[in-house]
Amino acid sequence: MNIIIVGGGKVGMTLAAQLSSEDHEITLIDTDSKHVESAVAALDIQGIVGNGTSYHTQLDAGVKDADLLIAVTDTDETSLLSCLIAKKAGDCHTIARVRDPEHYNEIEFIKEELGLSMAINPEIAAAGNIYRLIQVPSALDVDNFAKGRVNLLRLEIPEGSVLDGLKLNEVEKKIKVELLVCIVESGDDIIIPNGETKLKAGDKISVILPINELRPVLNKIGIKAKPIKDVMIAGGGNISYYLARMLIQSGINVKILELNRARCEELSLLLPEAIIIQGDASDQELLKEEGLTNTDALVSLTSIDEENILLSLYAHKISSAKCITKISKIDFEEVVRELPIGAVICPKRITSQFISSYVRSMQNSMGSNVETLYRMMDDRVEALEFKVSNNAKGHYLNVPLMELNLKPNILICSIIRGKKITTPRGRDCIKNGDTVIVVTTVTGLDDLSDIFA
Amino acid sequence: MNYGIIGYILGRVISIVAAAMLLPWVVGLIYNEKASLIFLVCALFFGAVSAIFFRKKPKNTSFYAREGFVVVALSWIVMSVIGAIPFVASGAIPNVVDALFEIVSGFTTTGSSILRDVESLPHCILFWRSFSHWIGGMGILVFILAILPMAGGQNIYLMRAESTGPSVGKLVPKIQKTAILLYAIYTALTLTHLVLLLIGRVPVFDAFCLSFGTAGTGGFGVLNDSFASYSAFAQIVTAIFMLLFGVNFNFYFFLISRKFKNAFAMDDVRCYFIIYIIASAIITLNLILNGSFGGLREVLFQTSSIMTSTGFASADFNLWPSLSRALMIMLMFTGACAGSTGGGMKVSRFIIYFKTVAKEARQLAHPRSVKVLKMDGKPIEHDVVRVVNVYLCSFIMVFAASFIIVLLDNFDLTTSFTAVAATLNNIGPGLNMVGPTGNFADFSVLSKLVFIFDMLAGRLEIFPMLLLLAPNTWKKHG
User: Fold this and answer.
1) Do domains A126-220 and A365-451 have the same CATH topology?
2) Residue A66: which of A2, A19, A20 has the closest Cα?
3) Residues of A in contact with B173 (CB under 8 A)
4) Cα separation of A429 and B303, whole Å?
5) Which tens digit of pLDDT belongs to each residue from B317-353?
6) Cystine design at B24: which of A240, A372, B124, B179 (Cβ 3.0–4.6 Å)?
7) Which residues of B touch A42 (CB under 8 A)?
8) B100-113 confidence digits (pLDDT tens)
9) Mean pLDDT across the stretch B274-303?
10) Where are the beta strands (DSSP E) in A44-179?
11) ipTM of the modeled complex
12) Is the pLDDT of residue B215 over 90?
């Protein structure tokens, strides 16, 4: 694909390197000629010095032939304007990084009006990633698609589980949780199950499940997972706020250490359930006093990488808490990874991974009506995202799903309406404007109507 | 310095040159010449050498500006040495230095010759001489970039070191596609010229050689009087194509991709044509007033040939009045556009020089004034201006040193001066003794070696050759 990247910072560079190695044609726009110069010297891409919000610069960069423009500039406004101009000038897909919480809260509206294909907030993405690391035992796989909104958890049914020998349509009655099993791997077979499919111990099932409901479900089906009740967060930045909000929603106690008094007060207003401690997170006495030795997890999110590393090293030494360390600079990564500081999170890397996985899914779907296409399990399973346009017509619209006949090996796993993601039941129906996610082992589906028998 | 990768790329260069030698072999077969066997032997031998010694890609493929310069300089030396072997082995040019001079003149698209009688050579040798122009015109490393996928973006250093002009950019994001595009444009233009020559009833063999010479802006002919005995049509077509090959290839790319605005906004292309027209007009007037005017075609052909650094001659401009001859010498230095196959110092550098001077003059009048230099409507980076200025200094120094050494041969000033100018600018003929009807045979071995260095330095735009001489370059960790 022809891809234009606006903004040659860390994320822009990482994306350019990744995408150009995947054989896309990259043009990088940056106002700083030094950035462009070093990017062009290091990567097989074209560089253009100029303002990404300028129509002429975009024309120079070949926006008319571009398939996608990714704006990752310093400011949200610049990124959004670049995307808007590219959309109007080149009618291409656009992705913007949007940082400001005020913009991000209204992102659905902005996306709709500016015709953005995707907006990514690196802080929320990082928080989501950390949240998943805390909640999901490391033995489980998580695939996420539909721009990270849908999580597919892959778990093995243990010996003696209640699920052993159960048919799928009996599962819900038995464990009293709504659980949508999308894929069953039994030996070498991969099947998209229906109600009659029988589960047995040793099978691997992939389920759609909100992460905050994960642990009770795991316990019910017999997978032991140590519950996490207390999490300590060092540093009170945006990631901390988003993370704390997610943790509190799933009933976890959160303690945030922040040095700045004013920020502490702000956080306490935003997160009344959290315990906000005003103090230096690198103060050993304070850490002990606040119970670092007994906490279940420590997340080091201060703005200084070195401090985060030291903090996690210290926590590793004096407690058995699960450690997660944020690193902003990607350099020296191989050294950092060798330290016993638990999982390392790098918001910029997450941002670029998010975008490049979207680009891949976009490329897979080129030439069809599929919005995005994700391949899983050695490419044997596909998750497809269909957008039902506002004026689309079809016999399947506004009809409860239980009255529709799906072809075999196809499953509707999510319906996204606005911001709301539902795992569909028999009574739900597909409406205009929805995004429908389908999991299948059948390849070559081109249109939503293809899935119905 | 990463010697492994340098060796690897040199191996590729050797194999390409070996493959190229198969063509003159085929030509020799057609004309039933014994000399053609030498090409086959060379091709097989060097093909085997590159296959045996340079097969493995080194583990460490990191590659920076320094390696780029060194690889390019070494590649050109290596291919010249290999290319000279058939000349010596066939007995066409028995002297090693002469043979080296001839092939360097070919690859660098200079077109200066040490041969007194071209017509007596076998066809396959003549073909190789002309074909070397075509290989050298767009550059052998650009060709390698086009056909071999080489991972990593650092290959831009190779392209920068080999292509002409102060700031080399890519046409499209992928370097391989850029290289393919350049060669596609190059080949298409060459073929068009070839077909037109054939339509003009130029003999087939001559048409091939002349179109190679024109495409690379080289200038080796197959007749002793260069271009004078071809038809008027062939001369006009060739004059036009010489001019076309002197145009920045970005211009053609813009035309192909229908960005006409960008194409016609290119300052150097516009200046190039303006300089050509003005110079031709002055020379025409000068010749008419002097009473030696031999027709407009003669003037247009000669100016086109010298300005684009081709060096074909349809008339002996050595006999022209002083003003016209001086203008010709100046055109040698201006040269063609950056990003073309032409030589000289390039029009775009002169644009920058004029703008810098104008800026400094303004600065003297208004010491606090701020003015950013622009070209093609875009600001010129300070680094580019700096490098362009340093280029001028190095050019003058190399020129002066060469001039002094060549003067040791005790030829007249005009001969010595224009001989250095013609080689360093990759023109071909100079004035007086080295004029269109003369040749370089009478110079001493030392002078010829200096010319060889000058031709390579001129083609690669000085810096790669200078870097090769700097001891610092060769330190492993330097």
Assistant:
1) yes
2) A2
3) 2, 20, 25-27, 44-46
4) 79
5) 989 999 999 999 999 999 999 989 988 999 999 999 9
6) B124
7) 153-154
8) 999 999 999 998 99
9) 93
10) 46-49, 68-71, 93-97, 118-120, 141-145, 150-156
11) 0.78
12) yes
- Count of H helices and E strands in chain B? 21, 2
Has residue A399 got a pLDDT over 60?
Answer: yes
Q: Which residues of B touch A25 (CB under 8 A)?
A: 172-174, 177
Q: What is the pLDDT of residue B421?
A: 95
Question: For chain A, which residues make up each domain, given as ranges?
Answer: 2-120, 126-220, 230-351, 365-451
How many angstroms away from the CA of B478 is the closest CA of chain A?
20
Nearest to B173 among A33, A42, A45 (CB): A45
CA–CA distance, B77 with B83 (Å, rounded to integer): 10
The two three-digit tokens of residue B323, written as one number? 């003003």
Residue in B170, B176, B378 closest to A46 by CB: B170
- Pick from B356, B344, B360, B358: nearest CA to B384: B356
The CATH classification of domain A230-351, taken from the options 3.40.50.720, 3.40.50.300, 3.10.290.10, 2.30.42.10: 3.40.50.720
Q: Chain A: residue nearest B259 by CA? A: A60
Considering the four listed CATH numbers 3.30.70.1450, 3.30.450.40, 3.10.690.10, 3.60.20.30, the one that applies to the domain covering A365-451 is 3.30.70.1450
| Encoded tokens for B244 | 């076309």
Alpha helices in B200-339, H assignment, sequence order: 204-215, 232-245, 249-256, 260-264, 267-290, 296-307, 322-334
Q: B169-202: string of b/e by CB count within 10 Å (b at 16+)?
A: bbbbbbbbbbbbbbbebbeebbeebbebbbebeb
Domain A126-220 CATH assignment equals 3.40.30.10: no
pLDDT tens digits, one per residue of A288-326: 888 888 899 999 999 999 999 999 999 988 888 888 999
Q: Which two tokens stand for residue A240?
A: 């901390």
- The number of residues in chain B equals 478
- The stretch A422-435 carries a mean pLDDT of 85
CA neighbor of B286 nearest in space, from B315, B328, B314, B316: B328
- The encoded tokens of residue B3 equal 């010697």
Q: Would residue B226 be called left, alpha or beta, if left means φ above 0 and alpha means ψ between -120 and 50 degrees? A: left
Minimum distance, in Å, between the CA of residue A330 and any CA atom of chain B:
20
Cα distances (angstroms) measured from residue A356 to each of A21, A122, A157, A351, B195: 11, 14, 32, 9, 48
d(Cα A246, Cα A252) in Å, to the nearest integer? 9
Is A164 exposed, middle or buried, given 0-12, 13-18 or 19+ CB atoms closer than 10 A?
Answer: middle
**Alpha-carbon gap, residue B428 to B421, rounded angstroms:** 9
Residues of chain B with a CB closer than 8 angstroms to some CB in chain A? 65, 152-157, 169-170, 172-177, 262, 378, 381
Contact check, Cβ <8 Å, A20/B154? no
Question: Which of B461, B443, B463 lies closest to B102, judged by CA?
Answer: B443
Q: B374 φ, ψ to 5°?
A: -125, 150
Res A130 pLDDT > 60: yes
Domain boundaries, chain B: 355-474
Give me the CATH topology for the region A2-120.
Rossmann fold (3.40.50)
Kindly state the tokens that stand for B353: 């020089």
Task: For residue B477, name the pLDDT band (cuts at 50, 70, 90).
Answer: low
- What is the structure's pLDDT at B476? 64
What confidence tens digit (pLDDT) does each residue in B230-256 have?
A: 999 999 999 999 999 999 999 999 999
| For residue B151, pLDDT beyond 60 | no
CB contact (8 A) between residue B153 and residue A42: yes
Give the pLDDT confidence score for residue B478 in this predicted structure.
47
Residues 6+ apart with CB under 8 A from B247: B269, B272, B336, B337, B340
